[in-house]
Request: fold
Amino acid sequence: MNLAVISHSYNNFQKDPTEALAPHVSSVNVYVRVNPFAEIGNFLPIPQVERFSSAYKIDRTGIPENVQVHPTPIWYLPTDHDYKKLGERHYSCAKSLMQKYGAEFDLIHAHFTWSAGYVGARLKEECGIPFVVTGHGYDVYSLPFEDNEWREKIEYVLNTADHVVTVSQSNLACIQKLDVSTPVTVIPNGFRSERFYPRDSSECRKALNLPQDKKIILTVGNLEPVKGQTHLIEAVQRVIRERKDILCVIVGAGKLRTTLKRQIRSLGLEDYVVLVGGKPHDEIATWMNACDLFVLPSLRESFGVVQIEAMACGKPVVATRNGGSEEVVISKEYGLLVDPANSEDLAEMIQVALEREWDRKAILQYIERFTWENIGKEIVDVYSRL
Reply:
């Protein structure tokens, strides 16, 4: 099988499943949407722009020999008007690249319903190639419900597909609210077992220049309102009323950095909360192994892959009931759940988690099902049905 992958990036949860599939197919050509406007991030340190640059969006480390990655440049502004037009532009550019390289495919897999999914739908209609689309998050639980035009666009993509994959039951419930007749399979995201595994915590702290005598609380995510870091900082303020031996480390870049720095300063938490910026994905495992507790304070998640990466390092998780975490933290053996945007409850569960003796072996045994090797087999099974 020769596979075409249409995606918005080639890192983390779009790179990893593609490379998990590589041993099962003859070739994979990946067409990654990039916006040349974002290349300003290569010259100016603007956090809001840097993560949209092609250097950030395309991770070429360890790419299998049978995988080729093609940047697909499309000029557009981050407005609703331009985004609604993006599908046709994306299709035209991807089609031109395919013709340029003379690639032939047996199956198309698009990640995100818009605009990658639109490209897959158009190619299927034009060439008759089987088409699978994965709805990951906002493209399923938010975009189709913003207005009727968006709903029509997303329903067109989903109904044109031969099969729809989505990463959580909460996403499936959103798809079921739409007028969609295509079969849907829930296949969660996974983690790279060769990267995320238990390591010596003391050595990891030494490598990251973190204190050995503190209980370290870690969160990883873009600095965006939906990720809930403001509520975590409020929770830390409550926790230090009971204990002073903690350090909360926030890994991530984004538009809230200045706001969060101001919040930390105003609450007098400079000794208890640190913003360390965005980190390469291959470094995240070191931060996770250095911590005592991983916290996911998001207001909404379609899945929340960082929590399974933390659990793969043997760490317990405190997460919000955000739509995705309920399907991962399914037992108090592995972590604890709290309501989103509730800093008081979050603080209480952080204290409970820090005091508890966790069964690391149980966490590691449970999380094994989420390796990309296992998830890849589920995706291949979908392909085999087409």
